[in-house]
Amino acid sequence: MTSKEQNTPLISVIIPAYNVAACIERTLNNVLQQTWKALEIIVVNDGSSDDTGAILDRYAAAHGAKIRVIHTPNQGVTCARLTGVKHAAGEWIGFVDGDDLLDQDMYELLV
Questions:
Q1: Are 94 and 63 in contact (CB under 8 A)?
Q2: 88 close to 40: Cβ distance less than 8 angstroms
Q3: Which whole-number Å values give the CA distances from 101 to 29, 50, 76, 86, 89, in the listed order?
Q4: Are the C-beta atoms of residues 36 and 12 closer than 8 Å to each other?
Q5: How would you write the pLDDT of the chain (111 residues) with one tens digit per residue?
Q6: How far is CA 93 from the centre of its chain?
Q7: Residue 41 CB-density burial (10 A; 0-12 exposed, 13-18 middle, 19+ buried)
């Protein structure tokens, strides 16, 4: 690891997800394509009754430690976000909704 990589702050991106099977793949792909690579993605499946959970599990399996999925009973978006925060390891925390799209360099510009 170079000195620059050691000084790169980790950002925990928390995504609450409730019945977003139709758009969660687009959102995850968008976050994965960020120019800031020091990201951990924590998705909280908030008791979805559609295929959201299965999609999230597939992405977590394909991307290893980069994407972590937490399955909870439905408690609402605020509780889902707080659950993500409790599991976050990043120096910074960002929130993205399950149907959001970000500019590709958003986190790089923020840092």
A1: no
A2: yes
A3: 9, 21, 21, 24, 23
A4: no
A5: 333 455 799 999 999 999 999 999 999 999 999 999 999 999 999 999 999 999 999 999 999 999 999 999 999 999 999 999 999 999 999 999 999 999 999 999 999
A6: 10
A7: buried
